[in-house]
Amino acid sequence: MVRNSDLLRKPLQGTVILGRWPSAPDITTLTAVDGITLPVGYESAGWISEDGLTFGSDMEVSEVRGWGASSMLRRDIASTDKTMAFSALETKRLTKELTTGLDLSTTTMGATGQVVITHPDRMPTKYWRALALGVDGDGDQRYYMAKFYPKCSVSEREEEGWSDGDDPLMYGVTLSALIDDSIGTSCREFLFGPGALAAAAAMGWALAPGLVAPTGLASGTVAATTVVLNWTAVTGAASYQVQRSTNNGDTYTDVASGAGGTPTANTTTITGLTATTGYRFRVLAVGPTGNRSPASTSIGVTTA
């Protein structure tokens, strides 16, 4: 048996990010170099209950049996209904829109601090774009997982309880995915982040062609607070990320852009260093979508 406990994943935190359909842009790629950047038009649902997110996939199957056959002759998946269930904890405009189906973007609060939401007799169908996001690990071990529904609507609403018990007001909803005809799918799934990249080979994923670890890393002029670094260019790289260690390579952190850490060429000057101090440096290639290569072999440098 081949088993690898490093590939066990557990989302330690996460949330749901919502955009209005169809005006919010489609999400086709997610990266996490120095944090996650989302298109304009999306808003976080904020804190959700400790139950997290629950995903359903209800399949309808068509079966063919033959006269005299002791087993199934053919089985076809007729349809698959994908759902996402969670309980939002924050009382705000977005959660009220989820539970009422109303567009409250133009609703304002009165001068006396009052908001009035008039419910219709029949809850209207309001469509969303929804991104469920979870993260495991910290620092350069961050592993993100996400599911994106380009078109979905609230198909179930949980009971809303008011009491002085331990639980706050919760807005529990189930979102059911629909096919967005302009996009052609009801769901996209993403695995990304530095932890995912580091575990790519163990998980069985091949890196994008040409995006390999830089080679030939070497130091040029070394001064008291600066050092010049050079390496061999990587085919397909849009830029590079220099990382620095102050504990002889035990841990690395990204060098900031302003300090020369994100050059587009295969050379850079790292600034802001301390005189007579030992550092280790390594460099990663970054693709056009923000995906990173494995790190180069590190080198040690002591400033003047």
Written account of the structure:
With 304 residues, the protein is mostly beta strands. It folds into two domains: 5-63 and 76-202, no CATH class; 218-302, Immunoglobulin-like (Sandwich). The chain is built from three helices and 15 strands. It has helices at residues 93-100, 194-198, 200-203, and strands at 13-20, 42-44, 54-64, 74-88, 127-136, 143-157, 171-177, 188-192, 218-222, 227-230, 239-245, 253-254, 267-270, 278-286, 299-302. Strand 5 (127-136) and strand 6 (143-157) form a beta hairpin. The longest helix has 8 residues, at 93-100. The radius of gyration is 25 Å and the shape is globular. It starts with 12 loop residues before the first strand and ends with a strand.
